[in-house]
């Protein structure tokens, strides 16, 4: 039976392990959900005016379809986290992208707005988020330029499903997470009596007196950031269209193309911010940079 010190040493070795070509490839496959998340946010935002026009949506349905992406992520987090802890990271990765692909294809083939809403509900997941947004920008601009049809939104959302399908196939070659394997080996040892008196992990432990402050520290900033990322990001194209005084004169598709370009230009700054964060966080610390980031968001809003 291995000691707790041995498990701690194994985790330390994992944390200090060097990154080679294979490790970066595995990181890309594992991070594909974040990339697809950014792609989904951008493409849905660009597609929303066309979907609204196609189905004559009222403001309530527009809001429901836009928020369905985030609501699906809530269910994914509640159900996916415990499932991944029990069954392993690799099955969760495969189920994740298969659900995204299915939801995107259902939306792309929708004949009624209710099907678009249903498809977006099952699409769930951060530098790669900005990369995904820019990938969505390039894809959507190409679609608008080549086909120029009011049905282009089907191709935009279908591209999300195609991207998820590619990651689904590639993730079959992912190995199981070594950290998950170590954790479950330690869990089996604890079940045999090594740590019989230790508290069982769960939501109650997260909000206990000992961990309550840490839980709030890591969860509230994400909550506030997601208000800006999803609340504004999903409707950036609609906002740009609302403040563009010449959109009607150029026609709806020309206006859509212009608004897509504007949205992509805004997302470039998101990528720049992520890149600066990768450089700055290890040098200045997580808390300090988090404060700087929220101050910047407050000033710009």
Secondary structure layout plus pairing:
Layout: H1 4-16, H2 21-30, H3 32-55, H4 59-87, H5 89-108, H6 113-121, H7 127-146, H8 152-170, H9 178-191, H10 203-206, H11 212-233, H12 236-243, H13 247-250, H14 252-284, H15 286-300
Summarize the model shown:
81% of the residues lie in helices and 0% in strands. The chain has helices spanning 4-16, 21-30, 32-55, 59-87, 89-108, 113-121, 127-146, 152-170, 178-191, 203-206, 212-233, 236-243, 247-250, 252-284, 286-300.
Would you mind describing this structure in some detail?
The model has no long low-confidence stretch (mean pLDDT 80). This protein has one domain (23-193, 212-300): Growth Hormone, Chain: A. The chain is mainly alpha-helical. It has 15 helices and no strands.
Unreliable sequence segments: none
Query: Helix- and strand-based class?
Result: mainly alpha
Helix tally equals: 15
Question: What sequence of helices (H) and strands (E) makes up the elements?
Answer: HHHHHHHHHHHHHHH
Distance between the termini: 56 Å
Q: For this entry, what is the oligomeric state of its chains? A: single chain
**What is the name of the CATH topology?**
Growth Hormone, Chain: A
Q: Estimate the strand proportion.
A: under 5%
The coarse overall form would be: globular
